[in-house]
């Protein structure tokens, strides 16, 4: 699986359209994950009150962690040639320490896509959507790499 130059340009274009809003996008995507797919809450026991949508949307730890996740994605956008190598320790962490079921990577990817689509409106064209999906495929494969 690899990204063409065109895919990379499309992903850069999404990122520049979303610039300045990336932190909010991370928070909204992670909140959406926890609300729409509530089984994912089990991994975030240290985050305090996640008992309902309002609590999740107002949870500062969720907001902070959303920013952290988007920061990792930003690294992948900026250096698309080395996603697997750059994500090796993150994959190890999610596998051996956090024991995150890797199917959840896809679900979070979908949440990020939905939030981007809502933010960019008609600017999130079908071509950009397709390239972003390929980009997520590469990111998810990298995150799954250390699972055995
Ligand atoms: C921690 C990225 C998906 C659960 C982290 C960290 C990063 C990250 C950068 C911080 C690592 C550190 O502190 O060294 C990502 C990316 C994802 C992803 C890029 C997919 C696009 C998920 C999913 C779950 C999850 C789907 C669970 C459903 C966690 C947990 C932590 C964590 C529980 C530790 C949080 C804490 O206690 O601070 N992740 N993650 N991650 N991730 Fe992920």
TrEMBL record:
Keywords on record: Heme, Iron, Metal-binding, Oxygen transport, Transport
PANTHER family: HEMOGLOBIN FAMILY MEMBER, HEMOGLOBIN SUBUNIT EPSILON
Record Gene3D superfamilies: Globins (1.10.490.10)
UniProt GO molecular function: heme binding; metal ion binding; oxygen binding; oxygen carrier activity
Protein known as: Hemoglobin subunit alpha-like
Domain of life: Eukaryota
Domain Globin: 2-148
GO CC aspect terms: haptoglobin-hemoglobin complex; hemoglobin complex
One GO process term, biological-process aspect: erythrocyte development
Claim: Membrane is one of the keywords in the record: no
Keyword Transcription regulation tagged: no
Native source organism of the sequence: Lepisosteus oculatus
PROSITE patterns xref list: GLOBIN (PS01033)
SUPFAM superfamilies (alphabetical): Globin-like (SSF46458)
